[in-house]
Structures are given as structure tokens and as C-alpha cells.
Design a protein that fits this description.
globular; single chain; cell membrane; 129 residues; mainly alpha; 6 helices; 84% helix
Length: 129
């Protein structure tokens, strides 16, 4: 029950943060904003699950709330999927393919960088050079 409450509370914050970013008029194009949010989420999810436990003694309840709740609601696969469909439906094939490629390969790269940063922090904490 505690995990459920943690996920729900953090999900509210993550969803509200994503919505707040979409309301800022200076951010630019919706598609690239969603892509940026998702790429940031890939990095943060990898860092939170891999490195944060080595930095802070967080309980499983907190880690689940941060990863599943906060980051899970901050990123949005459903919006990404809908955006891709809209780009295809409006005959913007090049943009649709670019959107998918940047999201997929950028997401994997960001997750990799999050794990690498985590490993560097863990290595430093353990007294490595």
C-alpha cells in the first residue's frame, strides 16, 4: 500500500511538471518538447535506478515512487505514439521517421549516459580513481 501511495504522489508531481513544460510558450515545437522530455526521462530513469541508491539510502518505496511515479508520469509513450501517428496521417513522413529515430536512439543513448554517470559516482564513492 505504501508503494501505491508513493507512486500516486510522485506521479502527480511528474505529470504536473510535464504539463507545466508544455504550457511554456518559449519552449517551441510540441513534438520536440515531448522528445526532449522523453530523452531526459530516459537519462533520469537510468540514473535514479542505477546511481541514486548508491548516493542516498532510499527505501524501495521511495525508489519505486521516483522511478515509476515521477519519471514514469513525466515521460509519455502515449503522447509519443500519438504524435508519430499524427505526423504519418498528415503526410509528414520524413518528420515521423526522424521523430522515431531521435526518440529511440536518443533514448538509448541517454539511458546509457545515465548508467555511465551512475557507475562513475559509484566508483568514486567506493574509492576508485
Amino acid at each position: 500500500m505504501r508503494k501505491f501511495i508513493s507512486v500516486a504522489a510522485f506521479a502527480f508531481v511528474g505529470g504536473a511538471l510535464r504539463e507545466a513544460l508544455t504550457l511554456i510558450p518559449l519552449v517551441g515545437d510540441h513534438y520536440w518538447l515531448i522528445c526532449t522530455i522523453n530523452l531526459l526521462g530516459c537519462f533520469l530513469l537510468a540514473f535514479v535506478t542505477e546511481g541514486l541508491p548508491a548516493i542516498l539510502p532510499l527505501s524501495d518505496v521511495w525508489l519505486t515512487g521516483l522511478s515509476t511515479g515521477l519519471i514514469g508520469s513525466f515521460t509519455t509513450f502515449s503522447t509519443f505514439s500519438t504524435d508519430f501517428y499524427i505526423l504519418l496521417r498528415t503526410n509528414q513522413f520524413s518528420w515521423a521517421i526522424l521523430y522515431v529515430m531521435v526518440s529511440l536512439f536518443g533514448g538509448l543513448t541517454c539511458a546509457y549516459l545515465g548508467v555511465r554517470l551512475s557507475n562513475r559516482i559509484i566508483h568514486k564513492k567506493e574509492g576508485g580513481l
